[in-house]
Write a structure and sequence with these properties.
368 residues; mainly alpha; 15 helices; AI-2E-like; transmembrane; AI-2E family transporter; membrane
């Protein structure tokens, strides 16, 4: 017997109401969590990346989960939050001191232009005139560019404020990551069950694939960039050049975007040579070539040996896109999200199709 038509309509209406209520609840939860979305994503990435070290330390501490999580988060805070805090302060301090910098440049004596400069096609004569103007009246030339310098200073001040907001997000993410580590076993079990419901026939190794990819990006890409930035800071500090932390941050940005770090330290080498500090220029050049650049060749393959080989263009787009869309914290979230999506899509495309269930043959009629 078929159900009455009005009963079917009632069931359809109830299903529609339930679906609308679930969507409204999901939207309301998203709006509540939206201000913390970046911190939550970064906290999850930190927890997945630090899980092996946390597990080892928890075993050494007699299974004291909270103490192990606290020590891990403190170490990560020293590695990330402290250098970035110095960076934000350095950018903020640059703006009030730009008049001092201009005054110092005004008293700087510029040598005569080199003879080869005039031979540059199209722009050689203009370059010679600009050089001679700077040689004879550098304060007046700087005064001409003063509005541009003011705009640059205002932009840097805004970036320092944005970096301060990013630091707050990163510190919040560190606290949440500690809570994730303490409840890691329960959370990972729930994540596995969710993947089993969503992943279909290939769900078995998806959690481990996600974890491996996240660790490959955070240790191989971010870890190598931090090491290169630290070496750059040490080398530049030895030469006595000011703005060491700002230079280190620029090196970190360049390294995490998979670009050569000589973009940062090579101009400093040229500046030292131009000022006559040949010994320091040679030292920084060798330091950059033998240590800063070379560490990328053996440290990154070692750190991502258990992770995922990822296209450099993917990491570059993730860094730039994450920085533009999420600010400072997007530097870490952007490449990680793209890497996970890349690996999941590749796993889905390469997975064998599920076997079709055998066709059921109709039963033969019984012989009478």
């Amino acid at each position: 017997m078929q159900a009455p038509k009005w009963s079917q309509q009632r069931l359809s209406l109830e299903s529609l109401v339930r679906a609308v209520l679930v969507l409204l609840l999901a939207f309301a939860c998203f709006k509540v969590l939206q201000p913390f979305l970046g911190a939550l994503l970064w906290a999850g990435i930190i927890a997945i990346s630090a899980w092996p070290a946390y597990n080892w330390l928890r075993g050494k501490l007699g299974n004291r989960s909270k103490l192990a999580a606290l020590l891990i988060i403190l170490l990560l805070a020293i590695a990330f939050v402290v250098p970035l805090t110095f960076m934000a302060v350095s950018i903020a301090d640059f703006v009030p001191s730009k008049s001092v910098i201009s005054g110092g440049l005004g008293s700087f004596k510029i040598p005569s232009p080199p003879s080869w400069l005039a031979g540059i096609p199209l722009v050689g004569d203009q370059a010679i005139q600009l050089w001679q103007t700077a040689q004879t009246d550098l304060p007046g030339l700087l005064e001409h560019f003063k509005p541009m310098l003011d705009d640059v200073g205002s932009w840097l001040l805004a970036q320092g404020a944005q970096m301060g907001k990013g630091l707050v997000e990163i510190m919040l993410a560190m606290v949440i990551a500690g809570l994730f580590l303490v409840a890691g076993d329960t959370l990972w079990s729930g994540f596995g069950r969710m993947i089993a419901k969503l992943g279909g026939h290939m769900h078995d190794d998806l959690p481990e694939l996600v974890a491996r990819t996240v660790r490959g990006v955070t240790t191989g890409v971010v870890g190598t960039a931090l090491a290169q930035a630290l070496l750059t800071v040490i080398g530049v500090a030895i030469t006595g050049v000011s703005g060491v932390m700002l230079i280190g941050f620029l090196c970190f940005l360049v390294a995490i975007a998979q670009l050569p770090t000589l973009i940062v330290w090579a101009p400093i080498v040229a500046w030292l040579a131009f000022k006559g500090q040949t010994g320091m220029a040679v030292f920084l050049g060798l330091w950059g070539l033998l240590l800063v650049n070379s560490i990328d060749n053996f440290l990154k393959p070692y750190l991502i040996s258990h992770g995922a080989r990822l296209p450099l263009s993917l990491i570059f787009l993730g860094v730039i896109g994450g920085l533009l869309s999420m600010g400072l914290i997007g530097l870490f979230i952007g490449p990680t999200l793209l890497a996970v999506a890349y690996r999941l899509i590749g796993r889905w495309l390469n997975a064998p199709a599920p076997a079709d269930p055998p066709d059921e043959q109709p039963a033969a009629p019984e012989q009478k």
